[in-house]
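Quick question: what would this complex look like in 3D?
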Amino acid sequence: NAGVTQTPKFQVLKTGQSMTLQCAQDMNHEYMSWYRQDPGMGLRLIHYSVGAGITDQGEVPNGYNVSRSTTEDFPLRLLSAAPSQTSVYFCASSSRSLTGGVNINEQYFGPGTRLTVT
Amino acid sequence: AQSVTQPDIHITVSEGASLELRCNYSYGATPYLFWYVQSPGQGLQLLLKYFSGDTLVQGIKGFEAEFKRSQSSFNLRKPSVHWSDAAEYFCAVGSSNTGNQFYFGTGTSLTVIP
């Protein structure tokens, strides 16, 4: 298994440009999430999905769009990049478990995409 | 609302010394708690998790954590630190009510000196 893969690893954009950060997982996980990591702020949830065709907003969704047409893929789109979106972006996935009444499992993270907006 | 606090931004320990990283959470129901480690330039790797049962949980790389409901804490410990443990450590609380959302602390950076 490749686990969670993200492309590209590095990206530089100019203000106003658009781009899509790709995320794929081969573990058949139902849940997928996007986080951004900024110094001193930990990881903040941007958007998440509980299954194909279902997405929802996290803590910091403004400026980002997502879609989930398949179980495997969960791309993150920046429609008009701004310097405030300079960050490291992580995609994560997890499975839904009903063992012992617990329906949450740990998340598996991709290697990240370092984005700079000038 | 759920939240996680890691009071220590940065900790320095000598190699071979013991380590404790603090984590406090705020969550109305029974929390699902996690510790992740992030090496420079890498993604996050799970160290250990607590769902229920025994409040002392063992993880990888010799780490353990203890869940204390009365103190709303889930501190990470290691009896003897190795130089390779230098990294950023994140505590997280999971919510089973809203689609597997996770809330992360701001992280503790660990430096290990010889």
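Answer marked as accepted. The mean pLDDT of chain B is 90.
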